[in-house]
Amino acid sequence: MGHPKKQRKKYDTPFRPWDKTRLDSERKLLKEYGLRRKHELWRAEAILRNFRHRARKLLGSPDEKREKELLNRLQKLGIKCSSLDEVLSININDVLSRRLQTIVHKKGANSALHARQMIIHGHITIMGRKIRYPSYLVPVVEESGITITNMDKKPVISENKELEKAAVEGE
Questions:
Q1: Of 44, 53, 97, 143, whose CB count within 10 A is highest?
Q2: What pLDDT does residue 2 have?
Q3: d(Cα 50, Cα 41) in Å, to the nearest integer?
Q4: Model pTM?
């Protein structure tokens, strides 16, 4: 299991570190999804690589139970696959689009970096739990439970006095 203070890295670095086409595509993905460091991208690639590896292994020696487990896991994450061949056609965008940071950005944050900041500062809750990890892969079940908590500690001042009275009476 290993020592808890000495965790191993969960990604592999590229074999060719200065490949221009790879660097350009990584830079584009970093900007699009608001990732801060390349190892976040490499970690998503490792997750994708593990799904593909499991699918190739199951294609070689079919096991109905494990195949259903893999397909159910992908369905829960929101990656639509009905067969092992479709698992092999998943790309990195499918995995990155399931990150909490990306989903919060789609739900109304100004940018991907703004969504990341809201998550880290604790303004995002999922089903009542504070999640402070932008890389959290959100299952489909929890996607509807994402809420933005009150970011401002100051009371909101409205210009309409009647609305203020109604709000006070409603409490």
A1: 44
A2: 77
A3: 14
A4: 0.83
